[in-house]
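Structure (tokenized):
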């Protein structure tokens, strides 16, 4: 099992590269567990599936049942953990031919705090990985912007099942994206996250001369290795407008470039 995590500054294309990576593994007939840890939850759209509930929705439901705002559904002889996991399996985990998807989502305004969602997400993700880990050949994680993912400890649960193979920070050639990448590396070290390889992927950086400059700046000023560049791809831009998903796009320069990056990483 290889675990790939895509963090980075907002707007750099983490979700798109996560979806293309899942497509890459699918074409190699490898089943992937996809984890959408961005509360805005857009990954399912690029993968062409519909989600019923998110982890946040289930946490909200259990919270309301405990407050008796909803009729409790939990059998008396079932623990809270067993009940919660059963709801995740029934209502949140999307199973398809080449990948399964878990979506974090948001808590309701009634809870007014993300903490319960993060805590229960840690439990749900670790249990799904342990329970279904034999069938999953890869795990792809789409993170939310910046460094917010690290205090939540969700990645720690992922890494406790197996160390993260590649933390691929998405940059767009801007100083802000490189500054964010540096912050992500520092948070990774501070939290003692188990990661084998940390690197950057340049997204929508097309000019060859500029690519070289970005690689040099990333290496000299930030100590970061750029493993490849993904070009601007207008087919991907049209995709959302025409309700297509990554599996329906046949001719994609971005996907071809991503395949090269994956092969260079021996994936």
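Design, position by position:
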């Amino acid at each position: 099992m290889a675990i790939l995590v895509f963090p980075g500054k907002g707007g750099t294309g983490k979700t798109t590269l996560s979806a293309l990576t899942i497509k890459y593994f699918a074409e190699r007939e490898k089943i992937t567990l996809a984890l959408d840890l961005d509360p805005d939850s857009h990954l399912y759209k690029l993968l062409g599936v519909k989600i019923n509930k998110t982890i946040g929705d289930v946490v909200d439901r259990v919270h309301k049942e405990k407050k008796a705002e909803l009729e409790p559904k939990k059998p008396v002889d079932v623990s809270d953990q067993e009940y919660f996991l059963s709801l995740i399996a029934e209502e949140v985990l999307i199973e398809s031919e080449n990948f399964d998807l878990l979506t974090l989502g948001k808590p309701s305004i009634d809870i007014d705090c993300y903490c319960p969602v993060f805590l229960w997400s840690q439990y749900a993700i670790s249990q799904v990985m342990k329970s279904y880990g034999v069938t999953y050949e890869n795990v792809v994680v789409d993170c939310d912007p910046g460094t917010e993912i690290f205090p939540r400890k969700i990645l720690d649960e992922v890494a406790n099942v197996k160390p993260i193979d590649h933390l691929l920070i998405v940059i767009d050639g801007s100083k802000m994206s490189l500054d964010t990448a540096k912050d992500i590396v520092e948070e990774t070290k501070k939290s003692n996250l188990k990661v084998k390889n940390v690197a950057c992927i340049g997204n929508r950086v097309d000019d060859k001369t500029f690519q070289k400059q970005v690689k040099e700046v990333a290496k000299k000023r930030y100590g970061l290795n750029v493993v490849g560049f993904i070009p601007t791809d207008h087919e991907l831009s049209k995709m959302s407008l025409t309700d297509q998903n990554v599996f329906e796009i046949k001719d994609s320069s971005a996907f071809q470039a991503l395949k090269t990056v994956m092969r260079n990483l021996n994936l």
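Reviewer-requested clarification: The longest strand covers residues 195-203. The chain has a mean pLDDT of 89.
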